[in-house]
Amino acid sequence: MLSTDTGGHVMHPVMKPALRRGWRDRDTVQFGMTPAHALTLGPMDPATNGFLDLLNGTRGLPLLREEGRRLDLPPGHADTLLTRLTRAGLVDDARGGGPAADALREKTDVLARLRPDLAALSLTTAEPGAALARLAARRTLRVQVRGAGRVGAVLASVLSGAGVGEVDVRDTGRVEPWDVAPGGLPAESLGERRDTAARNAVRHAAPGRPPRHAHSPGSGAQDAGLALVILAPRDEVAVHAPDPADAEPLLASGTPHLYAGVVEATGVVGPLVLPGASGCAGCLHLDRGDRDPAWPRLTAQWRSPKARRVAACELTLATAVAGLAAAHALAFLDGQSPTSAGTRWEVSLPGLDWRSRPVRAHPACGCGAAQRGKKGEHTSTGGERRATMAVQRPSAERRRKAGEARPTGTWRAHV
Predict the structure, then answer these.
(1) Residue 202 domain-assigned?
(2) In this protein, which residues make up the domain named THIF-type NAD/FAD binding fold (predicted)?
(3) What is the pLDDT of residues 210-240, one digit of tens each?
(4) Considering its fold, how many domains does the chain have in total?
(5) Cα separation, 149 vs 261, whole angstroms
(6) 155 sits in which H/E element
């Protein structure tokens, strides 16, 4: 039976509004449209349907149980329905998420900006209240973006707009005409310091104004507590062949870091480096040297000081790279495992076909990821199916069978 939690919080269930509802037939309702998230539930009798209409976040569990009795639901049926719906990921808690979520609810102007992000998080979290809790947690995180060109400045602004509490941008030099990009450095910033202009863009993108911390730029404090560092260099060589020396302090401090950029009309996202657990820039460099004896000679020539040239960083490609890198960064910050961990995603003009290239841990690299990999990892298939509600993700066969007759007396979900 559902109950209040240990803090005395009373759950206020609400059917997740991000999922559209539609009737497949007289007694089968579908929540959601896309195969990734849609579920069908049935058979649905009038009393149960009426009960679902009451799940709008305005009633606590005691009142819902009383309403269930008025609808002539069998004893305990309201709790059973809520338990099954919650396990299927269809129910949220309008007042859940803990103290940080409560504080965010009070910032109505901030939450209004973040409503689409909250709706998306509700689709990727099953526990009621978890979506707002994650959104509130973002506001406590610190991310640093190294590079304020067409990719880095846009990426930093997107993270700030998505609710990350502190996004610091590091770069040198002054804004050039080719640095300007929608969502990144504005034309009005020409001639300004790149890092200053990028930080201004980040502040303008933020929903609300998170408080400045003692370690904010200019405070002189050390870069402690970074949840993620994103390396988005303007230099094409640094994108294609990231220098392992640049990441040595990050590896030493155990700071996760993600690479992103554009080189010769090719966009790159990844790898996301989890120090000691996944392949790093050093692993990438050593692996390339194993496969191509000329690699060290080429990188030495590419990195030699020469006159700077304007990179082939087409605007739409740079924007796509910034968006994908930001999505991978947010997935990691939200506690997920994005596919960029140990992988580089690449896309080239004009075909725009994203492809993945693994960055394997190299045994000769000092990062230690290869030694850890030898110990093996345990993988899980997610456990056994629930007996009370079948939750099946889409396939062509399931979609063909979605309209077929179903056994009565059970709740099923198959799209």
Answers:
(1) yes
(2) 139-366
(3) 555 555 444 333 445 899 999 999 999 999 9
(4) 2
(5) 9
(6) helix 152-161
Distances (CA, A) of 264 to 188, 240, 267, 350: 27, 9, 8, 12
Cα(376)–Cα(378) distance, rounded to whole angstroms? 7
Range of the domain at 36: 13-95+392-414
| Domain shared by 218 and 273, yes or no | yes
DSSP designation for 341: B
Helix, strand, coil share (%) of the chain residues, nearest 5: 35, 15, 45
Measured over the CA atoms of residue 333, residue 339, residue 345 and residue 347, the dihedral's sign is negative
Give Cα separations from 288 to 190, 209, 294, 298, 357 (angstroms). Answer: 38, 44, 9, 11, 12
The two beta strands, 142-146 and 166-170, are parallel
Average pLDDT over residues 189-209: 94
Q: How far apart are CA 15 and CA 92, in angstroms?
A: 6
Question: Rounded CA gap, 313 and 307, in Å?
Answer: 18
Do 274 and 301 belong together in one domain? yes
- Tell me the CATH number at 205: 3.40.50.720
Mean pLDDT of 190-215: 85
Spatial separation of the C-alpha atoms in residues 309 and 35, rounded to whole Å: 46
What percentage of the chain reaches a pLDDT higher than 70? 83
